[in-house]
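Weekly puzzle thread! Below is a chain. First person to post its structure in token form gets bragging rights.
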Amino acid sequence: MVTLLEYLSFVYCCLNLIERLNFGIFYSKTNYVNALANWILISRMNKMNTTLHKIAIVDATGSGKGKRRFTRDAIGAGSRSVYGVLEKLGVEAKIFLAEDVLEKGFPKGFSSIFISAMSMDKIAVKRVISSWRKNAKGRVVVGGPISSELDSTLLSTRADIIVIGEGEKTIKELIEYDALRKSSSKEILEKILGIGYFYSKGKTKINGFRKYSSREEFRLYQASTKCITDYPKYFSAKVYVECVRGCSNFKGTKILLLDGRQCSECDYCDSYSLEDRLKCPEGIPPGCGFCSVPNLFGPARSRTPDRVVNEIAELLENNVKRIILSAPDFLDFGRDNELGDNLLMNPYFPKANTKLIEELLSQITSLESVAQGKAWIEVENVKAHLFTEEVAKILAKYLPGSSFSIGCETGSESHAIQLGRSSMPKETLRAVKIAHKYGLKSHVYFIHSLPGQTKQTATETVKLIHDLEPYIEKVTIYRFRPLPMSAFGDFPPPEPAIRNPISKMIADAANEVNLRKKTNLVGKKIRVILSEPNYREENGAIANILEGGPMVAVEDAKERIGEIVTVFIDKVITEKLVHGKIVE
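Winning reply:
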């Protein structure tokens, strides 16, 4: 029997055929019969493919060896985006945290598993896959930044399939081609771009990379909001909402690479053509030498304000209280709209689209929960050279007292140029002074042990950290990690700062500043969200400061977990924990 939906689908197909008849294309009755048969077959195949799948999505981002240490209160957009694709296809799915499945195992009934992770999470991913294969036979698909290691990811994790770069189209085809079954043929996998897999015993194959999605294609996809409740403590977590994908900095590093390649000053980096930009005679990946975002995700593309606002509204309806407007650079939002068909690959021109940014923030802050102070909104990252008084006024108007991050990475201008940075250290200092003037809170990032680091560049970085101190809330120091598909991907991992006297200069300066900043919290009233019980203090709770900062141990707050409250900070417990009491 033909269902009503299949019949209506067939009618729609016939109308398209009739339209073609008007252009002189002849179809016989046999054509229509064949069209009906084919349409029913495709419809039923698609229905079978979706109904027979039940996919476990494991969010392993930041889990390292198996347990998150530094990102416990963060929920990224990656796994929700995967869920959104499956949701649109009618495929049942559920999100798990890596640490939870490692502790409790997988519930029964899932046909396949998708794992999202970074390179640093490789051990956790291997443990999750091992746990999965104890009781299940479905295919394992791994995606996220970890997959940029290509063959190495497959060989080290023993996943069945890796998804490279943007995943939405690839995931859609994996489902539609029925490629998740162990019995599916290698010929099916060969049709799908942007994946790697084991072609024969022990031998891997990487299909051609999938082209970056266009602005229009990117805007078609929507991260799921209903799956947010799959996350423990989602009601107090920072939930990231993607506003911009990709990066506008398509300059390249000038540092000599290990294989002898070095920038030849060909000027291709200044072209408006993506094809020209990628014609680098030396084959150096675009962007800052340590970053793989431009190579993996392409030029910056913005979502529309209404799509972002709708997603936030749905999250708020699900009792989410902290929203982070996520982007490699939030000030790229809407800049691409002003270029017509051209791609946004120039970090300087056009300037920030303050009109569209204000439209977005105005709509977000008009949402009932936000307007009533029951939810907190903040921006993730900005590039210093785009941050102006006009931008600061808009952020201060709609998100007063909020925080944002600036990646400075080095305090040496000559080092910044060599790295391929779009913003210079002096622009970071200028930006945080403006932010401080308007009551905004800046967090500044640096990376120690970068290629090109010398005692001179470290000395300049230490000086800048101290110059920044009066105007910022926190300094964050990372150790350089060679990321696959970045220019520095082949560099060896450096030693910890404690073993490198030059790097230790930078780490020590940051620790000094941060300790003083924590001490400065004593005697202040701040807004926090109560996140979880404090098992070291009876009736106490652990809270997160809304605008960022150390964790807060709050007295007599166990029964109020999930609420946003004001606390009085009365002492510093450790460099990462302060103590406070609720004040009404």
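Puzzle host: Confirmed. Bonus trivia for everyone else. Residues 29-51 form the longest helix (23 residues).
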